[in-house]
Prior knowledge:
- By secondary structure, the chain is mainly β.
- It contains no helices and 5 strands.
- β4 (about 80-90) and β5 form a beta hairpin.
- About 25% of the residues are buried.
Amino acid sequence: MAGLFPEPPKKCNDPKCPYHGKVRVHGRMLEGVVVSDRMQKTVVVRIDYLWRDKKYKRFEKRSSKIKAHNPPCLDAREGDIVRIMETRPLAKTVKFVVVQVVRRAGE
Length: 107
Ligand SMILES: [Zn+2]
């Protein structure tokens, strides 16, 4: 993780934290907006992307929702823009982790 992203503002002791725990990231990096922070240490991130329609040769906006682990040192909240990266499955439906809060909601 070192060097790839800015260090989180604080330290945590979450074993599933990519900075202070044992989780290693790999694969895809995605950016999206947090649409729910109601679960413990897990956020729902909406990823918007353009989909190219083969038949009509035009782009359309699509989005998908991805659950990501939210380490306490980053503490992403609803409305924040975050970067998430793929990791080993951390829970039944969680295989991404928040690695950076790009912009806090309301900033
Ligand atoms: Zn941490």
